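Q: What residues go here?
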Protein backbone atom coordinates (compact mmCIF):
# COMPACT_ATOMS: atom_id res chain seq x y z
CA UNK A 1 0.00 0.00 0.00
CA UNK A 2 1.35 3.36 -0.98
CA UNK A 3 -0.09 6.86 -0.75
CA UNK A 4 -0.95 6.84 -4.45
CA UNK A 5 -3.15 3.74 -4.17
CA UNK A 6 -6.62 4.94 -4.95
CA UNK A 7 -9.88 3.11 -5.24
CA UNK A 8 -13.14 2.60 -3.50
CA UNK A 9 -13.08 1.91 0.22
CA UNK A 10 -14.12 -1.69 -0.46
CA UNK A 11 -11.11 -2.24 -2.74
CA UNK A 12 -8.67 -0.65 -0.30
CA UNK A 13 -10.18 -2.56 2.64
CA UNK A 14 -10.00 -5.88 0.82
CA UNK A 15 -6.36 -5.32 -0.18
CA UNK A 16 -5.41 -4.29 3.35
CA UNK A 17 -7.16 -7.32 4.85
CA UNK A 18 -5.34 -9.59 2.40
CA UNK A 19 -1.99 -8.09 3.42
CA UNK A 20 -2.77 -8.37 7.13
CA UNK A 21 -3.84 -12.00 6.80
CA UNK A 22 -0.58 -12.76 5.02
CA UNK A 23 1.45 -11.11 7.78
CA UNK A 24 -0.55 -12.93 10.45
CA UNK A 25 0.13 -16.25 8.75
CA UNK A 26 3.83 -15.44 8.43
CA UNK A 27 4.18 -14.53 12.10
CA UNK A 28 1.86 -17.24 13.41
CA UNK A 29 2.79 -19.29 16.46
CA UNK A 30 3.63 -22.35 14.40
CA UNK A 31 6.20 -20.44 12.37
CA UNK A 32 7.91 -19.03 15.47
CA UNK A 33 7.90 -22.41 17.17
CA UNK A 34 9.51 -24.17 14.21
CA UNK A 35 12.25 -21.52 14.02
CA UNK A 36 12.89 -21.80 17.77
CA UNK A 37 13.14 -25.58 17.58
CA UNK A 38 15.68 -25.39 14.75
CA UNK A 39 17.93 -23.16 16.85
CA UNK A 40 18.07 -25.65 19.72
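A:
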Amino acid sequence: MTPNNVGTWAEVRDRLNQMLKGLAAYFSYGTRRQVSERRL
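A: Context that may help when evaluating the design: The two ends are 37 Å apart (CA to CA). Helices lie at 9-26, 29-39.
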